[in-house]
Specification:
This protein has 351 residues and is an alpha+beta fold. It has one domain: Jelly Rolls. It is built from 8 helices and 22 strands. The chain has a 6-stranded antiparallel sheet with strand order 1-19-16-21-14-13. The relative contact order is 0.14. The model has no long low-confidence stretch (mean pLDDT 96). The site of 2,5-dihydroxybenzoic acid has 9 residues, from β3 and β10.
């Protein structure tokens, strides 16, 4: 339209919008394109953090604030394309937590589910509902939603791990609940390793007996490095690699064979030296830790070089192409578990 008519129409639109705004109404025709996008668009680009850079800041924080005073002494890895969100993806959180020798991070529980992937140190523990799991490098420890947890470091070295939580997922539903136990540590009510021997060996306590100790839906919380690394290693010696993943194993919940927790999935993969993975993209933005080796990741248009303990994020629907310059071992977690339940998950293999 042209001339005075178009102008009149424009004036009428502006008047309508101004009046509508008073009544909290907004025209969909101005918003639809950004609300219902043809493909995922909200997650920014690939980003990488070097462990040594984060560690430097974490140790400075360690001089200034105790774990007890902070409740959790953590540096949040905030995606620079999601400023203020405190998220590393639109649905997930990542942080690096430090506990110094002798410190305790006091007992609390919350509706958010958490995973811990150990990056440095040995001999600190997370206690889940009063059962300790002692940490070694690259162990995976879970604190599922609403289970009590405290962390402590009786060792003589700093202990650092990656926290992965579904904070932004829970926020979407405005379903956050949290409470403090009121004491630094949960009483030790269960011997160390109990969850693994009852639920982690293709066994479970006979139903209806008093030996059914942990929450039925989420009984296992300790997945030691020594076990998953051996599985990957032997797989790599006996199998052909998947063209997109190399050799990959997902951590599972023995209660139902599904994802480790309702909202988050986690896996490890090994790509042998010289392996060039075929490209793949998926609707679950994924946070990766380089456990061992070096290589490169092409994330959309961005090229990231990878080496030990780097942490990087691949936003939803960005094409990921990994290349291994030496045997490359990665840990990754994402919201795939939640997306599959909601019927949202998609992937595309190849270009
Ligand atoms: O260790 O319980 O990084 O509650 C953020 C929130 C860690 C924890 C985080 C938490 C924790």
């Amino acid at each position: 339209m042209e001339g005075p008519l178009a102008n009149d129409r424009q004036v009428a639109f502006e008047a309508l919008y101004a009046d509508m705004e008073q009544e909290h109404l907004y025209p969909l025709w101005k918003a639809l394109g950004t609300m219902v996008t043809p493909v995922p668009r909200g997650g920014g680009t690939g980003v990488k953090w070097r462990f040594s850079d984060i560690r430097r800041h974490l140790m400075r924080a360690g001089d200034l604030i105790s774990a007890e005073e902070a409740e959790r002494r953590v540096l949040i890895l905030e995606n620079p394309q999601l400023p203020g969100s405190r998220g590393i993806t639109t649905s997930l959180y990542a942080g690096l937590q430090l506990i110094l020798p002798g410190e305790v991070a006091p007992c609390h529980r919350h509706s958010q589910s958490a995973l811990r992937f150990v990056l440095e140190g040995e001999g600190a523990f997370t206690a889940v509902d009063g059962e300790k799991a002692f940490m070694h490098e690259f162990d995976l420890i879970l604190t599922p939603g609403w289970q009590w947890h405290d962390h402590a470091n009786p060792s003589s070295r700093p202990m650092i791990w990656l926290d992965g939580l579904d904070v932004q997922t829970v926020k979407t539903f405005d379903a956050s609940f949290a409470e403090k136990m009121g004491e630094a540590s949960h009483p030790e009510t269960v011997p160390t390793g109990d969850n693994v021997l009852r639920y982690g060996r293709n066994l479970r306590p006979m139903r209806g007996t008093s030996a059914e100790r942990r929450p039925r839906a989420l009984p296992l919380f300790y997945y030691p490095y020594a076990q998953w690394r051996e599985s990957l290693d032997r797989l790599a010696r006996s199998d052909e690699p998947d063209p997109h993943f190399g050799f990959a194993l997902e951590f599972t919940n023995p209660a139902d064979g599904g994802s480790i927790m309702p909202t988050m999935s986690a896996h490890v993969r090994l790509m042998p030296r010289g392996f060039a993975a075929a490209p793949r993209r998926a609707s679950d933005a994924t946070v990766f830790v380089v456990v061992e080796g070096h290589g490169s990741a092409r994330v959309g248009d961005m090229e990231l070089t990878l080496s030990g303990s780097d942490i990087f994020v691949v936003p939803a629907w960005h094409r990921l192409t990994l290349t291994a310059n030496s045997d490359l071992v990665l840990f990754g977690y994402s919201d795939r578990a939640a997306q599959e339940k909601l019927g949202l998950f998609r992937e595309a293999r190849g270009d």
